[in-house]
Design brief:
By secondary structure, this protein is mainly alpha-helical. The protein contains 5 helices and 4 strands. It is elongated and about 60 Å long. It comes from Caenorhabditis bovis.
Length: 142
Amino acid sequence: MDDELIGMKMDMTTAKGKTTEHYMWMWFHTKLQDTVLFSGWNVTDVGSLLWTCAIIIVAGILVESIKYLRFIIQKKQKKSRDPKYINRLFSGAHFAQTLLFLLQLGLGYMLMLIFMTFSIWLGLAVCIGLTAGYLIFGYHMH
C-alpha cells in the first residue's frame, strides 16, 4: 500500500544524518508504527506496544489517584478553615493542592496527546487506565 494512503509521512533527519520516518495519523488505526510523546519512545512491535500500554494504564490510574488525593486534602481543609483569605492562600494544604493540580493537569494532557496518536491500542489503554483509576478511587468522592 502506498505510504501516502496510510497517514501523513514525515521524514526527519537527525543531527547525525540518520533519517527516521514518522507518521501523523488522521484516523484511528491498528498499525504498530507510532511515536509516543518523545522521539525515542516508539511502538514498533508487540513487545513495545504492551510496555507502552502498561505505562499508559498506570498513568491513567495515577491521574485518578491524584484527583482523590486532592479531594481528601480539600475535605480536611474545610474542617480547619481559616477565616482570612491570605492565610488560606499561602497555607501548606493549598500549596499541596496546587502542586497536585499541576501534576494532574500535566499527566492529563499527556494522556490526551497519547490518545491523539489515533492508535486504537493506545487510546484503549488511556480509557482502561482512567476507568480503572475511577473504579479504585472515584466512588470515595460521591
